[in-house]
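Figure 3 (text version): structure tokens given as input.
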């Protein structure tokens, strides 16, 4: 009966008048009768709140007061509370729209920005606080001559990292800038992130993030294009700065992606300029690695990805596939894992994509043994060598491809190998 009173109060209904039509057992009716009196028990009717209030009044209590005393907290009308919160949210959103208008952002654009996932909810004051900090920076934009992002953050907030992508302020601000300039929404601190900031006269750090690569057949005006041209067969560290600008790769080029530098260096040692294009994330992919893979995928390259079979390796592959959603797996499958450890419960069925990853995760969880890339290095090198030879044969057979320079490192061949899924 008391829980029924609580529900009525939370819905904004009266607690001192009305009827509680809760089903009661004989034992429960006997308990209520001890308070309301034997005639109520015999009558067999529902509990009237007036009767309950009369009985409690003898002890100086109302029905609501009795429940609040038991619970130690006030009974709140949740409907009224929700209405109050909604009204507060509406007021705060209106304040944000008005504030953004003072820095030249149209109301419709501001309302679109406010639909961004991750922004604070209106009604708590946090949204307006964030908007005030965003407006503080917008008043200085665009900056001429361009200023570096860390310097802008330090000048405005005495914190060089205040506008980093991992900070709520940095993400909120750059996405509003992208909206204003009709640019792609930055999903991470990559190419779209730098492009949006550049539109506002702000330069991002381009040298801290890097990735290792071999024999990438790039074309364009980015610095990395020249580096690969003059260093065939040699590992090259690629920074964000070096892939800023326009660059592309031949459509259909197959690019292998691994986690550990040992694989890439062994490919350079064993195959040199004949090694197929290879990118190494060097652990969890950096922004440069994801930007590079994303750009290659956008150019029409086929990405074959793998990593260590351990928890970090699964993160590596997931992030690579987020940058290149069509990426296939390279010996990152249950069959490879099972063969290496002599397990018999896994078949060689040609699983692909999410199914393969789920089965591999389950297998790794059951056995708890990591399979590092170095442990199957011979297999990986054999794949690269076979792929490179197939690509070389295809180039030699094509006069047009030879005349045009082809795809260095066997990028256009194909290998009918169960390791390439």
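Below: residues designed for each position.
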């Amino acid at each position: 009966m008391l829980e029924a009173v609580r529900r009525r109060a939370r819905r904004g209904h009266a607690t001192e008048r009305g009827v509680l039509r809760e089903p009661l057992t004989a034992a429960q009716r006997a308990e209520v009768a001890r308070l309301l009196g034997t005639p109520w028990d015999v009558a067999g009717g529902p509990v009237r709140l007036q009767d309950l209030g009369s009985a409690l009044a003898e002890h100086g209590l109302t029905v609501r007061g009795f429940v609040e005393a038991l619970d130690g907290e006030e009974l709140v009308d949740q409907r009224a509370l929700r209405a109050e919160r909604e009204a507060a949210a509406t007021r705060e959103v209106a304040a944000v729209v008005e504030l953004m208008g003072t820095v030249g952002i149209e109301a419709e654009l501001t309302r679109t920005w406010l639909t961004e996932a991750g922004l604070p909810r209106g009604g708590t004051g946090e949204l307006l606080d964030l908007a005030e900090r965003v407006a503080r920076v917008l008043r200085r934009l665009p900056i001429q001559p361009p200023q570096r992002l860390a310097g802008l953050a330090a000048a405005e907030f005495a914190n060089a990292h205040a506008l980093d992508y991992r900070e709520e302020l940095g993400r909120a601000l750059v996405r509003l800038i992208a909206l204003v300039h009709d640019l792609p929404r930055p999903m991470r601190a990559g190419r779209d992130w730098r492009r949006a900031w550049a539109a506002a006269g702000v330069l991002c750090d381009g040298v801290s993030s890097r990735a290792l690569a071999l024999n990438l057949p790039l074309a364009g005006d980015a610095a990395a294009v020249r580096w690969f041209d003059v260093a065939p067969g040699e590992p090259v560290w690629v920074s964000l700065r070096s892939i800023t600008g326009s660059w592309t790769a031949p459509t259909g080029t197959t690019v292998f992606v691994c986690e550990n530098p040992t694989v890439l260096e062994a490919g350079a040692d064993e195959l040199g300029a004949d090694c197929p294009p290879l990118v190494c994330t060097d652990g969890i992919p950096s922004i440069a690695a994801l930007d590079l893979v994303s750009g290659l995928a956008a150019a029409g390259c086929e990405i074959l990805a793998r990593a260590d079979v351990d928890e970090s390796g699964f993160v590596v592959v997931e992030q690579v596939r987020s940058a290149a959603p069509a990426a296939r797996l390279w010996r990152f499958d249950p069959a490879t894992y099972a063969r290496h450890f002599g397990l018999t419960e896994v078949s060689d069925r040609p699983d692909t994509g999410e199914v393969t990853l789920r089965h591999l995760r389950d297998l790794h969880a059951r056995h708890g043994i990591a399979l590092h890339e170095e442990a199957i290095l011979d297999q990986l090198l054999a794949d690269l060598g076979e792929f490179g030879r197939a690509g070389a044969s295809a180039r030699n057979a094509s006069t047009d491809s030879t005349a045009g320079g082809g795809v260095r490192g066997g990028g256009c061949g194909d290998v009918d190998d169960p390791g390439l899924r």
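The CA atoms of residues 68 and 74 lie 5 Å apart.
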